[in-house]
What does this fold into?
Amino acid sequence: MTTTTRSTTYKATGTPRRLVHHNFFVGSISKTMDFYNQVLGIEETFRIANRGAGFLSNGNTHHDLGFVEVSEVTRHRGEEAHAKGIKEVPLDYGTKPGLNHFAYEMYNEAELVTAYDRISEFGVKPWLLEDRIVTRSVYFSDSEGNGIEYTVDMLSNWRDYRKPGASISQRDYVPGKETPSTASFVNLNPEIRRVESGALHAKKSAHCMLVARDFSKLRRFYIDVVGLRELYVSPGGEFSLLHGKDFPGYSMALVAQGSNRPAGVGQICFELASAEDFAGAEKRLAAKGVKLELRIEHPKKQVLRFRDPDGTQVQCYVEAPDFLDAVKTMDPALALQLV
Ligand SMILES: [Fe+2]
It folds into this structure.
């Protein structure tokens, strides 16, 4: 039984709190689930077998990662969106491995509804609105076709509903049809679990690097439409660090396209639980069949980079508390290696 509270004094701004999960279309759900469990040390929370979907979490919330296997069901998502007049969704969306969406967590439903109203004012049409009992979500695409989800937890006891074999209830959702709840079910002190057999031990899905075809336009989209705040933009316009509110770090590194940096997802980034994971990392990764592609030991940030089974670049890191300050005085080329 959950309780909700209503308030006429609460003033929602529709600002996301943080990036809460990455969701990708993948070639093999079993291979991908095994990779993120055994390489990044993130626990499997649940699967939806008939939809070829799987989810992992180390406890921050019900999923830090979601995956959907490419299938006949997913192959028509782009066409379906175009038929609804939503042309931002790429026609090949769901036909091959790649980004499904990045999800931004809202503090409560009132924030979700305010954010929904804002994107609607900008003429952005959501391609899915869903109430899954545990969460309520609004899905849309940015100006370059990257999928975005606003999501809000509607229950705090998600482990009772999101466990292996559990069925997923869902129903249509009309944001704002009913007075939205101002109660927050965000767990500010989550129980973080550790998969001992993992080569590494991720603390959380931290941020993504997104490479823009049109940096200026996409930057304005994430600030004005998505509602992220800009923490820093490099003076030469090479990159921008964007974030929500009330949560440390940054949620997105938005980077301008370059000759060796094609538009789309550059990498997905995970903060490690501790720097202890760096000792012997290359050997442990190799034992899981993973080739370490880059290792950086910088006084402000240590970085490991490799690829998942579909070739998505994965960055794992630990950073100094003043890393964001350090970025502001760094050579942009070095900063781009580290963010
Ligand atoms: Fe999602």
In short: Residues 1-6 have pLDDT under 50 and may be disordered. The domain at 202-338 is CATH 3.10.180.10 (2,3-Dihydroxybiphenyl 1,2-Dioxygenase; domain 1).
